[in-house]
Amino acid sequence: MTHTARVLLLALISTAALAQNSTDPFPASIPANEGVIRVGIAEFAALPDIDGVPARMMQLVNEPGTRRLFVNDQRGPIYTVSYDGRNVQLYVNVNDATYGHPVQSMGRERGVQHIAFHPQFGQAGAPGAGKFYTWGDTSNQAPAPDFTFPGGGMSTHDNVLLEWTTKTPGAAAYDGGAPKELFRFRDPFQNHNGGFLTFNPLAREGAPDFGMLYIGIADGGSGGDPLNMSQDMGRGFGKIFRINPLGTNSRNTKYGIPADNPFVSQPGALPEIWAVGVRNPQRAAWDPRNGSLFISDIGQNIVEEVSIATRGANLGWNQWEGSYRFVSRDAVDVAAPRGDPTMTYPVVEWGQLDPLLQQQSAAGGLVVYRAGAIPQIANMILFSDMPSGEMFYVSADKLPSGGQAAVRRVLFTHGGAATTFLQVIQEKNKAQGRMPATRADLRMSLGQDNQVYLLNKGDGTIRVLTK
Asked: Which of 97, 285, 334, 405 has the CA that lies 20 to 30 A from 103?
């Protein structure tokens, strides 16, 4: 053996010896009772079943220009809900055959993932008047994709970003034509299809960020990012995009590339990229006080996380799962947490094996609450574990530096008792004559006057937090 080979072998042995693989990097569990905040909860509105199955609610969006809330069912329908919750109407069905984008909604992960309304939606004569966007899965793979994957996948379906334009923003139902396709991803696997859509609500007209659309794009699926796309700057998967949906200077000329995007001048990098290294970025939330963009990202089998997605940030996946080196589906290396200064690590994270959670834990809803109507949660970041329906909080002013030591629960005062959200759903199921749901799929959204709405897939009921 040559001297060089011996040196390399010793280095490999040393590295292996230093590695400390673990399935649970958080030995101290989230306290079940310590620091619990209790809030009220009230039923607000109900969405209709489809073929006897409760609405698969994904996102609620406040549209102040027309003074309505919009809520989408993962299978295609988008509904309007009046501010008092009494009037629920079908606005448009993305799955309508006349639009040519049949929704692929098989399983729990596919479907219409997110909706967003241009900040000028309700402003007659403005460039963004009447425009809203849907981001979801379609079974129509006839058009050529704008973003593809390297060899090894199965080409299961497409993700498509659509721009819809209604003639009359205040109309009870959509009165526009077929949507404009802005871009399309060809998916290699069935899962990890989603992500968020969001406009910066703090940006004012004339500001560089006004009307820029942020898009969360998952890593393409399977497990462990087997095609290694999240860190590949030439691939769209595993990224957060920032585009001007009204522009035309993209490669396909259907949308714009903002000149201040971080990688517009980097050879080999997609100019749409705002941040890299995400796995399955479910939700985004803006801090109204300082403009920080928080995202919730589903981990592999060990760590769930909430992070800040700054300009040009690398959030680590698939080199890191949360604060820990990613080893495999079954292990992270806890020897040197947060050991790469070029990465952006989570603000807060939690372990999937925590006893409060179900198997296959997944980061979900996310809200930064800066209002005073519910003082118990003022200046808190609220986030949820989707399957279990557990809601947690940390301080928005004293951000943790990773880990779950700061994580505490939010429980709901319901019928005089402190309950979890899943228990609330199960009680409703009994009243509906249904079998009690086994999971909550909890998502959260801010509505008018900073009200916090809770969505689920178990009972078709939208709820709102109270004191």
From this structure: 285
Query: Residue 62's closest CA among 122, 103, 112, 136?
Result: 122
**C-alpha to C-alpha distance for 197 and 116, rounded to whole angstroms:** 6
For residue 53, what is the DSSP state? B
Q: What are phi and psi of 428, to 5 degrees?
A: -65, -40
* Rounded CA separation 101/136 (Å): 10
3-state secondary structure of 97: helix
Whether this model's pTM surpasses 0.90: yes
Domain borders along the chain are: 25-466
- Domain 25-466 coded CATH 2.120.10.30: yes
Q: Give the pLDDT confidence of 12-48 residue by residue, as tens digits.
A: 444 444 789 999 999 899 999 999 999 999 999 999 9
Provide the β-strand partners of residue 78.
72, 92
3-class DSSP assignment, residue 426: helix
- In this structure, the number of other CB atoms found within 10 A of the CB of residue 387 comes to 20
Residue 285: phi and psi, rounded to 5, are: -145, 135
Residue type, 159: N
DSSP string computed for 198-230: EE-TT--TTSTTTTPEEEEE---SSSS-TT--T
pLDDT for residue 439 is more than 60: yes
Does residue 436 carry a pLDDT above 80?
Answer: yes
Residue 65 Cα distances to 72, 119, 160, 200, 378, angstroms: 19, 9, 26, 16, 26
User: In which element (H, E) is residue 15 found?
Assistant: helix 3-18
Give the DSSP letter string of 421-446.
HHHHHHHHHHHHTPPPPS----EEEE
Residue 51 — pLDDT band, cuts 50, 70, 90?
Answer: very high
CB neighbours of 463 closer than 8 A, spacing ≥ 6? 41, 42, 43, 44, 424, 453, 454
